[in-house]
Amino acid sequence: MNIEFKNLMIKLLLLSLIFHLPFNLFAQKPVINVDFNKEIAPMKPVWSWFGYDEPNYTYMKDGKKLLSQLAAIGENPVYVRTHSLLVTGDGIPDLKWGSTNAYTEDVNGNPIYNFKIIDKIFDSYVSRGMKPLVQIGFMPEALSTHPQPYKHHWKPGDPYKDIITGWAYPPKDYNKWRSLIYEWAKHSIERYGKKEVESWYWEVWNEPNGDYWKGTQEEFFKLYDYAADGLKQALPTAKIGGPNIAGTRGKIAMEWLNNFIEHCTNGTNYATGEKGAPLEAILFHAKGSPKLVDGFVKMNMAPQLNDIYTGFKIAASYPNTKNLPVIIGESDPEGCAACGMATNPENAYRNGTAYSSYTAAVFARKYMLADLTKVNFLGAVSWSFEFENQPWFFGFRDLATNGVEKPVLNVFRMFGLMNGMRVAVQANRMYDLSEMLKSSVSGEQSDIGAIATKSEKSAAIMTWNYHDNDKKSDTETLTLTLNNLPSKKAVMSIFLIDSKNSNSYEVWKAMGSPNKPTKTQIATLKKSGKLKCVQKSTVEIIDGKVSLPVDLERQAVALVKLDW
């Protein structure tokens, strides 16, 4: 750095302090170059996986509406994972609670199977072309070794441990547990057909290394073995995996994942006495860690990315798992979907564009981590659905509120417009993967990056202006240059999510944040929740090249799509 330039930078810094200007006013202008001749890998729809705690929301009014909206995104089937499919109860949902009453016993202890509520749930998926990621859990009351208390009465603000009741314990009879899974799988084949059920993935329990499992590690392996044996007796070609651990980067979690793989590879099967257990997929969880700082939310995707990196590396380290499908069973900015911003102010990001821009930026890095570790990355479950009959924009981690889509859902709609091959992107303001793993986007400048795809007749570029600090900042103009396009002319569509576009939350706030919007207001909110195309035009492609400016607010996401 020469002395003149150094002195200039010092003067600019002093000016920014004197006049209270942001120093990034003088930051490097964002430039992104996309080379459509440099292919990386197929654009797998790893984003098309969703999940939630409350299974009975599935077939309720707004639940069915959201399922239809998700099913309409992209060309590939959407997979759905939900808790509590075997929990005993009346089928009435509550926060972090659901039930199906699939298993009870008569006075003599004989099993009674009733799959009517599970059928309503799975019918809702299959009729829309969706696939269940079937969670085998939790423990029916009649099978639990510690059945009472059973139903919890947790509400936001209560200690999280209060949800852990009789459903979290091992079975008192493992043979009955195996028979339950056998009968469930057999019933599913009879209802949906063998070919359909073969396309599902099954997994046992949820976060057994945490509060969700009140048994030992070996008891969990036994639970898994008996469940897998029951499933395979009904359908030998069924696909099952696990263990869906929490906090994957932690020492204890890594021990769980390694020990689980070792058990499935070389251990003695508790159900059959043979060597090993079925394992057709590796599953684990990954979460970020936002916090409230000086009145604003500060996101942090480093913990989530390190969970993913750890899980990918472990899966890649074993000969028998390195090619297995890897599914991130829950992949989110933090851990409790039902903890609204009233009780957890650090979750205030959920209604607005911080959630949508975070989602765009973090999925780009998930693809990078899969490329780096060479794993068979199949999907990442966004643990985000909807909460029926709850206050408007309460700050739950959901995709829609009272049937109105939130900004984050529009990012998934953007992903649905991307297909074919991922291609090379060079972005001078996109944080390196190593820096993201270390400290997320905590520097002075925001993360302005992109992910791009090409297919035979189209190209798509998603770009964002993301920062961990959910604070307003100046709009920046990105210079986006597309190289080696295989056409001379194309129809260009630009879709945008920011404070004025594809954003029902800002419209709701402008209405005065009504607790009971009128019919007219609801119609306006529904319209504002759709993904908005802000520009559509025909562009000339000269020597395979197009260059255009894209204005991005802090936390904005844009998709530029070319069709020819």
UniProtKB/TrEMBL annotation:
<dbReference type="InterPro" id="IPR051923">
    <property type="entry name" value="Glycosyl_Hydrolase_39"/>
</dbReference>
<keyword id="KW-0378">Hydrolase</keyword>
<protein>
    <submittedName>
        <fullName>Beta-xylosidase</fullName>
    </submittedName>
</protein>
<comment type="similarity">
    <text>Belongs to the glycosyl hydrolase 39 family.</text>
</comment>
<dbReference type="InterPro" id="IPR049166">
    <property type="entry name" value="GH39_cat"/>
</dbReference>
<dbReference type="Pfam" id="PF01229">
    <property type="entry name" value="Glyco_hydro_39"/>
</dbReference>
<keyword id="KW-0326">Glycosidase</keyword>
<dbReference type="InterPro" id="IPR000514">
    <property type="entry name" value="Glyco_hydro_39"/>
</dbReference>
<feature type="domain" description="Glycosyl hydrolases family 39 N-terminal catalytic">
    <location>
        <begin position="32"/>
        <end position="531"/>
    </location>
</feature>
<dbReference type="InterPro" id="IPR017853">
    <property type="entry name" value="GH"/>
</dbReference>
